[in-house]
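Progress narrative, work stream C.
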Amino acid sequence: MVAVAGAGFGSYWFQPWKLWQDETVEEALPGAVETSAPPAGALSGEPSEQPSSTTSGPRTLASGDLISHEHATSGTAKLVRLADGSHVVRLENLDTSNGPDLRVWLTDAPVKQGKAGWHVFDDGKYVSLGKLKGNKGSQNYALPSDVDWSGYSSVSIWCDRFDVSFGAAELARL
């Protein structure tokens, strides 16, 4: 009876089936506007009747490539200011393993290669932006309005259950 209870607890805790279950999420960047073709007159050299306008859409403030830690991880993490002045962390082309209790963290920790980088992200300042929506795809995570993003330098896909980074990206200011 104890062995069955132990096996049940172990299955719940580790959730090994998630290693074979992928969840793909494809979200558009909020506020991104599809561009249309320029007016025909603009192509032929004739003056266009439509005034040119500057776009005040989303702007990438920082970006970095995700590196692998506990699990093979790839993709890009971006810090984006939206047209309304709010900010999101955007994961693009994310590809990592699924796992129990995965979170997206904005942190002040340096990104280190290999095992040296697995456990550093909870040592300093971090903000949890929520549960990872999917282990594959492109997705957005809103920054709370009271968070000053300039005090953070990296993004981690963090397994809260085992206190380990699946992968992380150093954010280089653009």
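Work stream C, second folded protein:
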Amino acid sequence: MTDDVSTSRAWVAAPAAYKAAIAAAIDAHGCPEVSKDLVAAQFQYESGFRADVTSPAGAIGPAQILPNTLERYRARTGATDPTNPADAAAIVVAVDCDHAAQLRGRSIAVTDETISKVWMGGMNVVGHAFPGVDRYAREIAHAAAPE
């Protein structure tokens, strides 16, 4: 299992159940570019580690997963409940790794910030200025960085 020693602000803030879920998801579905710190930062930003959140757009759970994303990743991850931290973590890790592969495929640097930009706005936003997306990506990257 991935060790839980980290100094990122997001990882330190994560409840133990989320740390365990994120570490297990990285072990099962991870790739080199996706760290526990990045995933913890996404959870922290999206919901403050709360499972009972639903957005006006229908995004559900601690990672604010849209129903179509759940359906797309259900078979690959076995996730069925986006309010469950383990299922949400499995989906986030799988999606982030897919984004990392897309970035690599386009010879774009794979960083916490670029993965977060794709998470928020899709591949079309990378390399362009979108103030809301850029702010989101910078905040995620900052929360995932070692303190």
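The mean pLDDT is 94. No further action is required on this item.
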